[in-house]
Design a protein that fits this description.
Helix content of chain A is about 30%, strand content about 15%. Chain A contains 16 helices and 21 strands. In chain A, the strands form six sheets. A six-stranded mixed beta sheet of chain A has the order 14-18-13-17-15-16. Chain A has a five-stranded mixed beta sheet with strand order 8-9-10-1-11, with helices on one face. In chain A, strand 6 and strand 7 form a beta hairpin. In chain A, helix 9 runs antiparallel to helix 11. Chain B is built from 13 helices and no strands. In chain B, helix 1 packs antiparallel against helix 13 and helix 8 runs antiparallel to helix 9. Chain B is flat and about 85 Å long. The chains are: A alpha+beta (about 550), B mainly alpha (about 300). Chains A and B meet through helix 1, helix 7, helix 13 and strand 17 of A and helix 2, helix 4, helix 5, helix 6 and helix 12 of B.
Chain lengths: ~550, ~300
């Protein structure tokens, strides 16, 4: 009898578990994910990723911080909310000289700091010098190395006054470059070039970002900062375009755990989340929902190949391993991604004549390996001759990376009859082994563009400092990139960049895998927030639509002035 | 007794120094740095960073600075969260972890002792079987299963409680229950076995023979002895509950020490790691000492 009663409890538990799907089926009919209830007023609750390293835009390099800086600080230019291309911000307009080595930016006269002080050209000059100062030790400083004297100043070999940024008058900034940089206007949207308040920094030193000291220049200003809890920003009436700002308040939550993010979103505790947050096993379920934001991104996923160590120091081996992966199948398997054979993301840069790399071709891959010496007496490919113990796929530990690695492993097994071991490594340890070229064979890599130009990807291999994880950086390639940047005509420049990319693909120091997709969620009442290729949202365009009848309409195109 | 406490407190200092030294050495052994990222940093920038944070100094200077900081109770500035003093992080994060920890512990203690004692008094009854079965489930159910299960029903199906974040009392309920689950179960089992043993002992029989009311036998005599295992379990348990619980803080996105600790390690944020490790070891040592002192009061057989 006793036994019976306990088993009855067990049965009840099991029954309630089975009843669970029944409880959630009502959500199946809804075109939205979870609870949909617009918050009162114009308030947005957003999950921005990890806890920001700092509110100082020159100091941190990450995306979570970049999302927050878009609310608090402005640069000369900004990102278009839909396309991610350059739009005017503190600069109204700009022009370049014939060979892209000198740019003039004309600042608007009504831009103000949050304390009411006017923003002038001198503020920008001071900000750039400060970002480059060796004492600050900014990790993003290299982005400004194209400016004359910038690298030397950052290395302690020149003075701040030698940096080629000058205030021609109160509202005109001239930037002289060491090498041609046709994409300078898009580059200066980066946090490294945002304006920071001289007075506050000189008065408070490192403590200038404390809520009681901070002075900002973006559409919003700091109200509450509680690390690992929340950052609340409110509309700044001193902002030059304050009339266009629609939200009164934004709360940024630093939540890292993917399940927790999804729980908060489903329960209606937050209104939107950042990119790559929907677990990809859910994507098939989520894709039909109106919350799901899916567009190609300014980011790629690829494998680096160790070109300094056998067997991948042989170009035939590198090409064979690339050809033996069915990228289309990988894209289907990974669900949210577009296949990639080139090194720049597909469908992001309008007018860029992107080259294509080698297609999926297992017979040719085997032939290449046979040519490389892995053949039997008859001259046909013999997998047993291949030193598979010298190959590995190493990746930093995440679920998504593991699945991709297993997929690639299966492809190589199926198409080349080689079982390449896979190995997961903790992030910092992994970076170390990659930078020092200690890994065997292939190592996972991803790159999110610093700015909206193919150059931000190709530049990875022109790097004059340190390594790019592959050991490949021939002078011809670097020269090709330089030549492209001297071209004033954008179409010609793109053609030259594409030529360099084709050269890179032919040498195959990498195996391109896919163009990343945005993969995030927003509630239907959040408007003016688009799936752009950067997942950086200029917050002044965002608003809460309280009229339910407008929820399902497409967002009106953002007007940018 | 006083000499015992003093001696134990003095031993705490070298023990904490040993712990932070080993930790410091382990951080050095781990590859990578707080500033390493996807893209390599130009050597000049790396040099600037190392100078700014004193990493260019010889190891013994860095070690000496760390030890001196620890002895002064000021752990310096976080490397990852630039400009943020480690002491302020500890000060902000501790109340969060402590609130969740203490509430979870009180809940575990209340439910655990009551159900364990009742189970012992009614040994082999339905009540005993049910509560011990529940305790077994509680012990076997890790909090990363219990937490999301509670969230699934209470936050995502019935929408009655927030699924995460730090806010009012409503935000406390799920993390506290999740955290207390295992401890509750463990305490229930400890209380039951402790009580069973004591209830069969001679001095309880003597107390009953004296004609004491069952209530008095139970509360004045049996509970004191029966709960000794619970007390010795409490010291380390409470220390760990107070200093942050990585999994629960992660699941519920709480701004507590555990969350900081795990990220500090992943970020190689040396001052923050050292600060948290030193703090946790002090708390653990002090709680162990408190347990030993508590023994003196509860168990008449213990003498110092």
């Amino acid at each position: 009898m006793r036994r019976f009663s306990t088993s009855r409890i067990g049965a009840a538990i099991v029954a309630s578990l089975f009843a669970l799907p029944a409880c959630t089926t009502q959500a199946k009919d809804s075109p939205y994910f979870g609870k949909v209830e617009a918050p009162q007023g114009q308030v947005l609750r957003y999950i921005s990723g990890s806890e920001p390293e700092s509110l100082d835009p020159h100091v941190s390099t990450g995306q979570p911080e970049a999302r927050i800086y878009l609310a608090l600080f402005e640069g000369l230019t900004d990102y278009h909310p839909v396309t991610g291309q350059t739009i005017p911000a503190i600069a109204e307009r700009w022009e370049a000289n014939a060979d892209n080595t000198e740019f003039t930016f004309y600042l608007r006269h009504n831009a103000k700091w949050s304390n009411g002080d006017a923003i002038t050209a001198r503020d920008f000059v001071w900000s750039v010098r400060r970002g480059l100062s060796p004492a600050l030790a900014s990790r993003s400083a290299y982005l400004a190395y194209y400016i004359q004297g910038a690298k030397e100043y950052n290395e302690g070999k020149a003075r701040a006054e030698d940096v080629g940024v000058v205030a021609v008058d109160d509202y005109t900034v001239r930037i002289r470059l060491a090498t041609p940089v046709p994409y300078l206007a898009t580059l200066v949207s980066h946090q490294m070039f945002k304006l920071v308040p001289r007075k506050a920094i000189e008065a408070h030193g490192d403590a200038w970002t404390e809520p009681q000291n901070i002075v900002t220049c973006g559409p919003f200003k700091v109200k509450v900062r509680r690390p690992y809890d929340r950052l609340i920003v409110v509309r700044d009436p001193n902002y030059w375009d304050a009339a266009a700002v629609k939200l009164d308040e934004i709360t940024f939550y630093p939540v890292e755990d993917q399940m927790t993010q999804m729980n908060l979103y489903k329960a209606g505790e937050v209104d939107a989340v950042y990119n790559h947050t929907v677990p990809y096993a859910w994507v098939d379920e989520m894709r039909h929902l109106k919350d799901y934001m899916d567009k190609p991104e300014n980011a790629i996923e690829y494998y680096m190949l160790n070109t300094k160590k056998a067997p991948t120091n042989d170009i035939r081996v590198r090409r064979a391993f690339n050809m033996a992966i069915d990228k289309n199948a990988l894209a289907v398997y990974r669900r949210v991604v577009k296949p990639l054979t080139a090194f720049t993301p597909e469908g992001i840069f309008p007018g860029y004549p992107q080259p294509t790399g080698d297609a999926f071709d297992p017979p040719r891959a085997k032939q290449l390996l046979a040519d490389a010496g892995y053949r039997d007496a008859a001259g046909t490919y013999d997998p047993s001759k291949f030193p598979v113990s010298e190959m590995e796929i190493s990746y930093n530990t995440t679920e998504a990376n593991r699945q991709t690695a297993e997929f690639v492993q299966a492809q190589w097994k199926q198409n080349l009859q080689l079982t390449v071991p896979i190995k997961n490594i903790e992030w910092k340890t992994f970076l170390d082994s990659r930078a020092k070229l200690q890994y065997k064979g292939a190592a996972r890599a991803g790159w999110v563009g610093d700015y909206m130009d193919p150059y931000t990807f190709l530049d990875l291999f022109s790097t004059e400092f340190g390594d790019n994880g592959t050991g490949w950086s021939p002078p011809e390639f670097v020269a090709m990139l330089r030549e492209a940047n001297t071209a004033h005509d954008p179409a010609k420049r793109y053609a030259l960049l594409a030529r360099a990319e084709a050269f890179l693909l032919a040498a195959q120091p990498v195996i391109p895998l896919y163009t990343a997709a945005t993969d995030w969620l927003k509630k239907p009442y959040v408007k003016g927030m688009y799936a752009n290729p950067l997942t950086l949202h200029p917050w002044k365009f965002v608003y809460i639509e309280h009229d339910r009848s407008k929820w399902d309409l497409d967002d009106p195109p953002a007007s940018t002035n | 007794m006083l000499r015992f406490i003093l001696r134990r407190l003095l031993i705490t200092i070298p023990m904490v120094l040993v712990v932070v030294s080993v930790t410091w050495g382990l951080i050095r052994l781990a590859p990578g740095n707080f500033y390493t990222g996807e893209k390599p940093i130009p050597p000049a920038i790396e040099k600037n960073i190392r100078e700014r944070y004193g990493l260019d100094k010889p190891w013994y200077v860095q070690y000496g600075r760390m030890i001196s900081n620890t002895l002064h109770g000021d752990f310096g500035i976080s490397l990852k969260y630039q400009g943020e003093p480690v002491n302020r992080i500890l000060k902000n994060a501790l109340p969060v972890s402590a609130t969740i920890g203490v509430l979870a512990y009180l809940l575990a203690l209340a439910v655990g002792i009551v159900s364990g004692t009742l189970a012992a008094l009614r040994q082999n009854s339905n009540l005993d079987y049910t509560s011990m079965a529940a305790a077994m489930i509680g012990i076997s159910l890790p909090n990363f299963v219990l937490g999301p299960t509670l969230v699934l029903f209470l936050s995502l199906t019935w929408y009655v409680l927030p699924p995460a974040l730090w806010g009012g009392p409503r935000h406390l309920i799920l993390p506290v229950i999740t955290l207390s689950g295992v401890y509750m179960a463990y305490i229930a089992r400890l209380a039951r076995s402790g009580m069973l043993e004591v209830l069969r002992s001679n001095y309880i029989r003597t107390a009953r023979a004296k004609g004491l009311a069952e209530r008095h036998v139970l509360i004045r005599h049996a509970l004191r002895g029966g709960l000794l295992p619970v007390v010795s379990f409490s010291g380390p348990a409470l220390a760990f509950l107070l200093t942050g619980t990585v999994v629960v803080e992660k699941i519920f996105a709480l701004p507590g020490l555990g969350n900081y600790f795990i990220n500090a390690n992943l970020n190689r944020d040396e001052p923050l790691i050292i600060g948290i490790v030193a703090f946790i070891s002090i708390v653990v040592l002090i709680f162990n000492l408190m347990v030993d002192i508590a023994y003196g009061f509860i168990d008449p057989r213990v003498r110092y």
